[in-house]
Write a structure and sequence with these properties.
single chain, alpha/beta, Rossmann fold, 44% helix, binds 1,4-dihydronicotinamide adenine dinucleotide
């Protein structure tokens, strides 16, 4: 324990169950001294186990569908009321693709589903940032982090329309980062995480063998959800005050490797 987040308060989205990356962030943020508000959709609150996390971390759960600006406004108002004022950090840990869920390949996308993918997985981040900005909800020195995947930067059609949503999420990070930085002294970054076996992760076809492959290629091996949470805490802390508008890899080095067959290495 480093007391990295002593006196800090924030919102953590996306904790569905104890496999969720957000779940680990919530546990570790509180262990580092933070006070948190948890949120998820009403359906995920019902079907998942977030209330157990709330009990464990002494936090409240405020329901919000991140595609609804009204819900996000109530969430931010509710958090400010709970904390008694502005707060310091927000985690966006939200992603879903109906096309992936239904096993629809990239060359045969259903466009109604595609809209949903983009709304849930990328536009929700703009909506969240816009509500935070308009309500002036974050303290100077604050930090907003969203989770992304390398398919947002490199071609990976197996990741379906989520690849496009992640590219958009990373672009929103840069553009809103300018405004949040200049006007509010708030950082906005994405963390690009190794493939991880969570409920969302399990939706990707061939995820198991992909995880093993990437684990072998990455010099440090894959980063776990716990590793990801540790990294995110540094981004919420005061130790990274000048880091903003970045896509930061937490992937054991995978993003910098040019993979080639093992026989060439030996
Ligand atoms: P997860 O399934 O535990 O979390 C996804 C969360 O999104 C769930 O809690 C779900 O309720 C929430 N969500 C879905 N629709 C929503 C909506 N309309 N409003 C509010 N919340 C909504 O899975 P995981 O892996 O922890 O996902 C968290 C983030 O990490 C996602 O952005 C995902 O794309 C990203 N990520 C995951 C990787 C993996 O391999 N698992 C790798 C890189 C990034």
């Amino acid at each position: 324990m480093y007391n990295l987040l002593q006196g800090k308060r924030g919102i953590i989205t996306g904790a569905l169950n104890d496999m969720s990356i957000a779940w680990k962030v919530a546990q570790k943020a509180v262990a580092e001294g933070a006070e948190i508000v948890l949120t998820n959709t009403p359906v995920s609150i019902r079907l998942g186990t977030i209330n157990r996390l709330a009990e464990e971390t002494g936090s409240i759960v405020l329901p919000a569908d991140a595609t609804s600006v009204n819900d996000l406004e109530s969430l931010v108002d509710g958090a400010m009321a709970h904390f008694g004022g502005k707060f310091d950090f927000v985690l966006h840990s939200i992603g879903m693709s109906p096309n992936i869920r239904k096993g629809i390949p990239y060359e045969n996308l259903n466009y109604e589903y595609f809209h949903k993918t983009v709304d849930i997985s990328a536009m929700s981040f703009h909506k969240l940032l816009q509500v935070l900005y308009q309500k002036d909800a974050l303290r100077a020195g604050g930090s907003v982090v969203a989770l992304t995947y390398i398919a947002g930067d490199r071609a990976m059609p197996g990741y379906g329309d989520m690849a496009d949503a992640k590219a958009m999420l990373q672009s929103i990070t840069r553009n809103f980062g300018v405004i949040m930085g200049r006007e509010r002294q708030v950082r906005v970054n994405t963390v690009s995480q190794s493939p991880t076996l969570t409920t969302a992760g399990q939706g990707i076809a061939g995820m198991g063998s992909m995880i093993d492959y990437v684990d072998n290629v990455s010099p440090l091996g894959n980063a776990s959800a716990d590793d990801c949470a540790d990294y995110i805490l540094t981004l919420f802390s005061d130790l990274t005050r000048k880091v903003t508008m970045q896509n930061l890899y937490n992937d054991g080095g995978y993003s910098s490797i040019l993979p080639y067959p093992n026989q060439i290495l030996s």
